[in-house]
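Figure-free illustration: sequence to structure, shown twice.
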Amino acid sequence: MKLSVDNATGRVRLTLPSRASARDGLRWAEGQQAWIAQALTRRPDAVPFEPGATILYLGETVALGWDSGFPRTPLLDDGQLIAGGPREGYERRIERWLRARALDVMRAETAEYAARAGVTVAKVAIGDAKGRWGSCASSGVIRYSWRLILAPPDVRRATVAHEVAHRVHMNHSPAFHAVVRDLYGREPTRERAWLRANALRLHSFGRTS
């Protein structure tokens, strides 16, 4: 039996083995209230994409601004991301801009690493998976969390190298990790540790609750 907390919604999820009964699982979960309370306490406050908020972008602190006289498309200038147009829809414009930047950047980095590895990638897509930062399907489609654009570039590139390496080995064998090291240039230990330590924070951006 396993308990986990959804980084985005704060919902507590109970996972049971195939032979376990729901009644036994709920009884066990009721005895884990201290763990649940502690896990929810660690969850950072939501940081909506609203004027005046402070977010991460490329690992740097960026303030969100709004000026109705500015163009609707957000503009990054001197540590501030400013979008114009009506106040209504501001949050969606900020997120669309971040998603677009994530796709552009990681599409280019994926092509770079794929050429280096001598492999092809059918498609690069982005999403907002709660439990993983990237995935590589046997079809050659690689999908990333758009939230990687919030992380430092080295962290993002380490994740891209990891997924491209799956085009060589669809497993996590020693041979696979050797490909990751070859593509990235070294063992991405620090980058993996950064993602583990900051996962909840990255998922707090754009949340409303």
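We now fold a second protein in the same way, so the two outputs can be compared directly.
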Amino acid sequence: MNAPTTRKGPQALDIKSATIYTVRLVLHSANTSELLEALQQRMEGAGAFFQGEPVVIDCSAIMDPIEWEPLLQALRHYQLHPIGVTGSTEQEQAAAQHGLTAVELSLAKAAIEIPEPEQTPPSPVTPAPLILHQNLRSGQRFVAPEGDLIVIGMVGHGAEIIATGNISVYGPLRGKAIAGANGNTNAWISTTEFEPELIAIAGVYSVIEDLHTNPHHKKPVLIQLEGDSLKFEPLG
């Protein structure tokens, strides 16, 4: 049995650049009850879209003190992971006492604005869908945060695709597909080769445990939401 290689001194580690993508939580109020109520409404409408994501809290528009502990507990309840804050020096110093680090806004990839005075229903159709010409393999995740997603290629086992609108896969769908992630019940999923691990529309999930007994296995199929259940229709 060979002994493990030992690298001493500076060779024991490398320093490389990395880009961290996070969700940006934009606060428009310092009132705790308003924030928690708005967060609940947003998370109920988003389904699993933001679950597991790191979060940077943007309180740059807030001058009043914020009760950090109940807000952080609520975020963790919804499986969000607060890691940083951006705002005034006073706000950042107060947040630091609760384990949040001051960060730059350029790290944020998506925004959840809280609270929003008027809620409008999501549009079922986006005029310019996001088109992905590649295969996605295990561990890869692709998100279309503002509309439809078209994948021309394979979504492999362990890969995940998410869209606020519809999802079309022109190839094998073997991983996870989540459409209508912002609560759009009119969204649908289609694929030319049905082999997924999990599909979801507007928070309604179906875990495919035994594909070989599924009547749509490896066939073109359209999935839509009908009431509180998913409806499968063969294509072509």
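Summary for the second example: The first helix runs from residue 32 to 46.
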